[in-house]
Structure formats: structure tokens, C-alpha cells
Design brief:
Length: 221
């Protein structure tokens, strides 16, 4: 049994199935869309399979691959968007989980060519920072990962033009919460713009929030 930290492979498989169902129920992964992964160790990741409803996915469906996307174990094939996950893991050794989803409001912003990078909400500044928009590239291709690569090191969530969103963090729970916050922030931005009077935070306030976030991260370690 492989283990990451104190979690065994079976526990991580169960977590992937559990969070998959949560994301499906939130409406973030309709049909067979979306995918999740966790880092098993320095050389391998466990990922959801391709062509599978995230509501129906089971622990035995998960696929073990190396950091070049080659299947090591599993009865199914890994997600066709494995390149997104590999790009993030290879560029961010601090990341242990990746969630790619299609939350409807955030995806609407991506389809409108708009990033979520205006500091309208203190919570979003604290937990996400700006969420940039990666240029369009065809799903399931190396070009998609390449379009995101310049943005991965300095962000924790990214919108993909005409596609969806990806969030990543130190754990599956962390990545899930960031994806949830991306959609929440997108909804706030939509309402603020519909009201016609969005009021971004000024730079001194943003700086104070960044300082508070840095202090929180130091104290939580």
C-alpha cells in the first residue's frame, strides 16, 4: 500500500471518490466532465478516470500514473486532461492536489474572456488572490497545459478560456475549497457588475490583506 504522509492509497482513493461526488452535486462537474488528482509521492499521482460521471466514480476506478502521464496501475484510462495536472505538479512541488471543473458562473467569465482579477472581495484576496485567464487551447492537448504554464507558479487557481477552471493546493480539501471560492467570487463579480457599481478594494487595503494572509500561513505551519 502506497502512502502520502499519513494517508494510505486506499484513503486517498476514497477521498477522490468523495470529493468527486461533492463537486458533481455542486453542479461543477456535469456529465463526465471534470477531473481530480492527488500526489502519491514524488514520482506518482492518483487521478480520476476518463469518460466517467464523478457522481458514479468508485475507489477502484482511480488510475495511478507517473509524472509523465504513463499509466502504472488501474483498470481504466486516466483523464484525457492529465496534461493539466502534470503541468501543475511539475511546476509546483508544493502542490499535492489538483481539481479541474466547470463551475457555471466562473466558466461564464472564462467564455466571456474575463479573468477574476479585480479585488472586489476581501475573502477572495485572502484565499485565492487574482484568478487569471489562460489563452484558449484545445482540451486534452499539450497546448492547453502550455497555455497555462506561465500562470501556474504565481497563482492557486486559473480560468481557461472557453473551457473551465482549475484550482490546486496542499491537499484535496484545500483544492476543493479554492474551487468553491472561485465560483463564489465569480458570482459576486457577476452581481456587482449587474448592479453597475463594482467598488474594488484600494491598494492599501489589498496590501493589508496580503500581510494578514502571510501571517496566517506562517502561524498555521
Amino acid at each position: 500500500m502506497i502512502a502520502t504522509g499519513t494517508a494510505t492509497e486506499l484513503e486517498l482513493r476514497r477521498d477522490l471518490a468523495r470529493f468527486s461526488k461533492w463537486l458533481y452535486r455542486l453542479g461543477f462537474m456535469p456529465g463526465s466532465s471534470g477531473n481530480l488528482s492527488v500526489r502519491m509521492d514524488s514520482d506518482t499521482i492518483l487521478v480520476t478516470p476518463t469518460g466517467c460521471s464523478k457522481y458514479l466514480v468508485k475507489t477502484d476506478d482511480m488510475v495511478l500514473v507517473d509524472l509523465e502521464g504513463r499509466k502504472i496501475a488501474g483498470s481504466r484510462q486516466p483523464t484525457s486532461e492529465i496534461g493539466i495536472h502534470l503541468a501543475i505538479y511539475n511546476l509546483r512541488p508544493d502542490v499535492n492536489s489538483v481539481v479541474h471543473a466547470h463551475p457555471p458562473v466562473a466558466t461564464g467569465f472564462a467564455c466571456a474572456g474575463k479573468a477574476l482579477d479585480v479585488p472586489l472581495c476581501s475573502e477572495a484576496v485572502m484565499t485565492l488572490g487574482p484568478v487569471p485567464l489562460a489563452p484558449y487551447a484545445t482540451t486534452g492537448t499539450a497546448e492547453l497545459a502550455a497555455s497555462m504554464a506561465p500562470l501556474i507558479p504565481d497563482h492557486t487557481a486559473i480560468l481557461m478560456a472557453n473551457h473551465g477552471a482549475v484550482a490546486y493546493g496542499e491537499s484535496l480539501l484545500d483544492a476543493f475549497l479554492k474551487m468553491e471560492t472561485v465560483e463564489h467570487f465569480a458570482h459576486i463579480c457577476l452581481v456587482a457588475n449587474q448592479l453597475g457599481s463594482p467598488c474594488p478594494l484600494e491598494e492599501p487595503a489589498v496590501g493589508q490583506l496580503h500581510e494578514a494572509r502571510a501571517k496566517y500561513l506562517r502561524n498555521s505551519r
